Amino acid sequence: MARLLTLFDQAHTRGLIGKSASDRLTFLALAEHAKVVGSQNPCGLFATLVRRQQWHFVTDSDEDAAQARLKQYLYGSPARAAPPPALVPPELSHDAAIVRYLRTQLARAGWHGDAFGLVSREDPAWTRARWDRAAAELAHAETAWQQGNALNRLGDLTGAGDGLDVLGAPAADGDEIE
């Protein structure tokens, strides 16, 4: 959190964001968003969103998580219990990770629809059944992630639950906000 607050000061110095408490919370929430959404390089995603001043990507749950982390950092909090094993996010298979990546990249490019045709044209090993299994696994994992996020928010409200890891490492390509 200390590193993230240093990055906030650097972003303010560069004129990317204001200095108010609201701006600080928005900045921290954008970091939370990058942690949740960034599948390959969350730190790089965060740096890009900050440089482009794309604060509109912040969701209510990102803001709630950022506020909880900031409160814990500033004021401390009682030790929290680890989440039950059932709440550990499921690992994606290689195929489901490919489906997630393709959907994310195509959505960023503005294309919406079933990407199976594109994949099967490039790699005939991708059958409709294989695609549907991977998509179903991804849907199941996304539901589990959403439930885990909801339980984390509930835990923040009740003082129980698992806190989030610190986002403070520089981007993988070495870029930092200076």
Characterize the structure shown.
The chain is an all-alpha fold. It has one domain (2-158). It is 61% helix and 0% strand. The protein contains seven helices and no strands. The chain has helices spanning 2-13, 21-37, 42-51, 60-75, 94-108, 116-122, 128-158. Helix 2 packs across helix 3. It is elongated, with a radius of gyration of 18 Å. The two termini are 17 Å apart.
User: What is the radius of gyration?
Assistant: 18 Å
| β-sheet strand percentage | under 5%
Shape: elongated
Order of helices and strands: HHHHHHH
* Alpha-beta classification: mainly alpha
Output the number of helix runs: 7
Pick out the low-confidence regions. 159-178
Mean pLDDT: 78
Strand count: 0
Oligomer: single chain
Helix content: 55-70%
Report the span from N to C terminus.
Answer: 17 Å
Number of domains: 1
Tell me about the biggest sheet?
Answer: none
